[in-house]
Design a protein that fits this description.
alpha+beta, 17 helices, 14 strands, about 15% strand, flat
């Protein structure tokens, strides 16, 4: 949304630049040793960096087993986070669960949020990226914002719409101060560096979001070393600034190096943009004086420790094992080649042309056989490959690769039932732990952030059109229809299984109450209580199938239906009272309605007495 950056005074800009510029530079320098370690992790994952200890002139192979372990961990964790299309729930916060209006509004919010997550954010890809950052760097950072898009209408007009968005932040570009806490609410300063193309900056300046600067005032940006080294190690590429400009008239700089600084003051957050590659030094080009209640970033830390922001990750364990595995493979191949072509001792007095002694198929040696002797070294290949298998097994244990997870349980183990489920859950305990932390720290708060950004920044009259499918009807409503008090919960496979088990148990309770219903109801009525069947049915439906279609199972009756029901109940009461008094009119008192059955019983009793 447009800011008041155009009203930023020169004195205020200089004051902010003077206060924030030294702190930002110091944060970049302080974190360089940690970035060197992260680059080793990135090299082990990409398979482009060689950090070996065994020096061989022939074999320098790199087997990317660490990447295989990371990707297996990522895929299995993502399937836990997004097990199906129903991976989150919306609960009313200010209305009773028995009210139909709350169910309808919850379905509207749920359909809108599902469209955002599935169609615009690509929730499964988003979850995979979060888990990949978790494995490589031990930290997941996401940022939520709004995206202003222009949508052409059928009438030919172009309307502006505001949609919430979120992305996973590159840990190399994100800095936090102080480094003794990982909670965004307790941090003082958060910095994210990025290179903004000049065309994007110029379009922002036209809308008044940033201050106007001349392209000729830009210097060549200094790309961070971690970005340059990642480009070189991954694809042998240089930084984007080396590309030729589209404007051949003069050599213009095409990027603006910017640091987006979020600083907390009096419990509220303010945003500042600092442009670095300008003539005359750094300058503040954007300032939001309106404070934000919550920070836009969400952080999840692996292996979190008190008073520590940077902790170890899974790659702290896998990267040394990757180095060991590379050495073991190269040593094994070296030993195999030595046994295939053993060392040779040549007597120079018997063999004069040493260059002719080449070991190859169908080779002809013009030499005295007595002057050539072959050594027979001890074969260590078998032991070397045993070490390779041991290291691979240790690395696979990080990704949960075991017979249970692979669907191949060992002999005498159960293959179905509750025992099998318990064993499988234990085998995937590490992945479940990561999925649970990401759900609690990232995904569940992100649902609330997306809702808050839409309600706060979108036009209340903005029309939201949700396309339909075969099982999901199309919907159309305004942003104002989403306003309310809602509670959001990301429901992965872990919570879904727990809720389904709870729902199955409640179904069993419902069946038991149906069998002993009259006795239980009479006892409750004597005690002055009653059983709320409507709430029980809705709770079973929510735990088993979620909020979808909840307003369809229990709904209000029309006045006509109520009148017919009352008439039917009155007729049944009258028929019951007549039967209690002696049956149909004209019959003797006490004579049953089914007279034939009583006559048969009487005749049978008389025959038995005779």
């Amino acid at each position: 949304m447009p800011d008041v950056t155009t009203k930023l005074t020169i004195e205020k800009a200089r004051e902010l630049a003077g206060d924030l510029e030294p702190l930002v530079r110091d944060l970049l320098v302080r974190r360089m040793p940690l970035e060197e370690r992260w680059l080793l992790f990135h090299g082990a994952y990409s398979g482009r960096t060689y950090r070996t200890q065994f020096n061989s002139e022939m074999f320098r192979h790199f087997i990317p087993a660490a990447r295989r372990a990371v990707e297996r961990f990522t895929v299995r964790g993502a399937q836990m986070l997004v097990p199906s299309a129903d991976f989150f729930e919306v609960y009313p916060g200010d209305l009773e669960t028995t009210q139909t209006d709350a169910d309808k509004e919850a379905n509207a919010v749920r359909s809108w949020l599902r469209y955002i997550l599935v169609k615009r954010l690509k929730s499964y890809v988003f979850a995979r990226t979060c888990l990949r950052m978790w494995c490589l760097y031990g930290r997941v950072i996401t940022k939520s914002a709004v995206d202003v898009v222009s949508v052409p209408e059928r009438s030919g007009e172009v309307t502006t719409q505001v949609w919430p968005t979120a992305r996973v932040v590159d840990p190399f570009y994100f800095y936090a101060y102080p480094e003794t806490t990982s909670d965004p609410q307790r941090l003082t300063v958060m910095v994210e560096n990025f290179m903004l193309p000049w065309d994007n900056y110029k379009s922002l300046a036209k809308t008044g979001i940033v201050t106007e600067i001349l392209q000729s005032d830009l210097n060549r940006p200094e790309w961070p070393q971690h970005q340059v080294r990642r480009l070189q190690s991954q694809s042998q590429m240089t930084e984007p600034s080396t590309a030729q400009s589209t404007d051949k008239s003069e050599d213009l700089v095409m990027f603006v190096a910017i640091s987006e600084v979020w600083m907390r003051r009096d419990g509220r957050w303010q945003r500042v943009w600092i442009a670095w590659n300008l003539n005359g030094g750094a300058r503040v080009v954007r300032f939001n004086p309106k404070p934000y209640p919550v920070p836009p970033y969400r952080i999840a830390i692996a292996r979190d420790l008190p008073s520590e922001h940077y902790t170890t990750s899974m790659m702290d364990d896998l990267e040394p094992m990757q180095v060991l595995l590379n050495d073991q493979f190269n040593i094994a191949l070296e030993g195999q080649a030595t046994n295939f072509s053993p060392p040779t001792v040549v007597d120079p007095n018997r063999v004069y042309r040493h260059s002719s002694l080449v070991f190859r198929p169908r080779a002809k040696w013009l030499a005295d056989p007595e002057g050539i002797k072959f050594f027979q070294p001890h074969d260590t290949t078998r032991f070397a490959f045993q070490g390779v298998q041991m290291t691979l097994g240790m690395m696979d244990s990080f990704s949960g690769s075991n017979p249970l997870a692979e669907g191949q349980p060992t002999r005498n183990l159960p293959r179905a039932g509750f025992a099998m489920t318990s064993l499988l859950n234990l085998s995937l305990a590490d992945i479940k732990d990561a999925a649970q932390v990401i759900e609690d720290c990232i995904l569940t708060p992100l649902l609330g952030d997306l809702y808050r950004l839409t309600v706060e920044y979108a036009n209340p009259q903005q029309i939201i059109r949700i396309p339909g499918t075969q099982d999901w009807p199309a919907r159309q409503f305004k942003v104002s229809d989403l306003v309310g008090d809602w509670d959001f919960q990301w429901v992965g496979s872990l919570q879904a299984q727990d809720m389904q088990v709870k729902s199955q148990r409640m179904v069993a309770v419902l069946g038991m109450l149906g069998k002993i219903g009259p006795t239980v109801l009479q006892d409750l009525q004597v005690r002055g209580k009653r059983l709320n069947w409507e709430a029980l049915l809705k709770r079973i439906w929510r735990d088993g199938l979620g909020e979808r279609g909840l307003d369809k199972i229990v709904e209000d009756m029309t006045p006509e239906e109520m009148q017919r029901l009352q008439q039917q109940m009155l007729l049944q009461a009258m028929a019951g009272s007549k039967g209690a008094k002696g049956g149909q009119p004209g019959q003797n008192p006490g004579y049953a309605a089914d007279g034939a059955a009583v006559d048969n019983q009487t005749s049978q009793m008389m025959n038995a007495g005779a």
